[in-house]
Amino acid sequence: MTSTLPPSAPAAVRLRGLVRRHGDVRALDGVDLDVAAGTFTAVMGPSGSGKSTLLRCAAGLDRPDAGRVEVAGTALDGLSERRLTLLRRDRIGFVFQSFNLLPTLTAAQNVALPLRLAGRRPARGEVRAALARVGLAGRERHRPAELSGGQCQRVAIARALIARPAVLFGDEPTGALDSATGAEVMDMLRSLVDEEGRTLVTVTHDPLAAARADRVVFLVDGRLAGEIVAPTADTVAATLAALRPAGAGVDTANTGTDRVPAAGSAC
Ligand SMILES: Nc1ncnc2c1ncn2[C@@H]1O[C@H](COP(=O)(O)OP(=O)(O)OP(=O)(O)O)[C@@H](O)[C@H]1O
Predict the structure, then answer these.
(1) What is the spatial distance between Cα 44 and Cα 38, in angstroms, rounded to a whole number?
(2) Is the CB of residue 164 below 6 angstroms from any atom belonging to ligand 1?
(3) Which residues lie in coiled coils (predicted)?
(4) pLDDT of the residue at 221
(5) How far apart are CA 134 and CA 147, in angstroms?
(6) Where do the domains of the chain lie, and which CATH numbers do they carry?
(7) Could you tell me if the CB of 55 is within 6 A of ligand 1?
């Protein structure tokens, strides 16, 4: 199946015929998908169905073997590595399950890093405002070891958003957090869409997290296998259960009900 917008509708992300092979494995097997600007899309599916590969190709972190990726109207295929790096820096944000903060830098310095790497000095109050936006007012001078896991992920999100990317991609951004903290982070991500018109695309295994999205798309064996608009945790869980091959066990990844927080300090 495909999930595309009319050609005239503004798409923050447009994927056409995406194929990505790893040896004999077709991690993506012909995916057509549009993500409308200003929306929150969750990507779900069984373990190994191609979710991370989809995100990495859409974000320009990996190159598909065939097909086309457009982000905010720019086609990624054919871009030189340098142009792709600049596009990722300026137009694409990415957060991972691990927070990847630099331990010796303060929260504010971590958030400012993408601007500094781009040769730009942050405007007065810009970093403080970015941290306040993710609920970390007053934490500017804390280093990662002095922050909780949820706070570290908020710093990582502020860092990913500081350059005002066209799309923020998240690969299980709450996967290392306990359920309550993960829910708070998902609520904060939702508010970024509602209040600022941000565009989010997030892989998650958690039906409760996916229920915050406007739309959930499901992958199976590298192909789109369905979608739910205006999802609830129940409709998401039921769809996932129906997609799981008969006899398959519970997904080894976190399901949101059995999450264990990352050990030790969080970052
Ligand atoms: N670098 C790689 N080398 C070889 N095979 C890979 C590589 N990356 C992904 N794959 C394979 O491609 C398929 C899709 O992997 P991917 O990580 O995208 O799935 P996923 O849905 O994100 O899985 P999970 O939910 O377990 O994280 C899997 O069969 C995986 O083993």
Answers:
(1) 20
(2) no
(3) none
(4) 96
(5) 14
(6) 11-99+165-243 (3.40.50.300)
(7) no
Measured from the CB, is residue 158 less than 6 Å from ligand 1? no
Q: Is the CB of 252 under 6 A from ligand 1?
A: no
Q: Does 95 sit in the ligand 1 pocket, CB within 6 Å?
A: no
Residues in Cβ contact with 124 at an 8 Å cutoff, skipping those fewer than 6 apart:
none
DSSP β-bridge partners for residue 223:
220
- Ligand 1 geometric centre to CA of 222 (Å): 10
Nearest Cα to Cα of residue 3 among 38, 41, 32: 32
> How many Å apart are CA 151 and CA 155, to the nearest integer?
6
Structure tokens at 11: 């798409």
Q: Are the beta carbons of 30 and 4 closer than 8 angstroms?
A: no
Among protein residues, the one with the nearest Cα to ligand 1's atom 25 is 47
Q: Is 204 in the pocket of ligand 1 (CB under 6 A)?
A: no
Q: Extract the tokens encoding 34.
A: 């549009």
List pLDDT tens digits, range 90-116.
999 999 999 999 999 999 999 999 999
> Left if phi > 0, otherwise alpha if psi is -120 to 50, otherwise beta: which for 210?
alpha
What one-character-per-residue DSSP string does 113-175 give?
HHHHHTT-PPPTTHHHHHHHHTT-TT-TT--GGGS-HHHHHHHHHHHHHTT--SEEEEESTTT
The answer, yes or no, to whether any atom of ligand 1 lies below 6 A from the CB of 225, is: no
Question: With a cut of 50, which residues of the chain have pLDDT below it?
Answer: 249-265
CA 27 to ligand 1 centroid distance, Å:
6
Compute, in angstroms, the gap from residue 47 CA to the centroid of ligand 1. Answer: 8
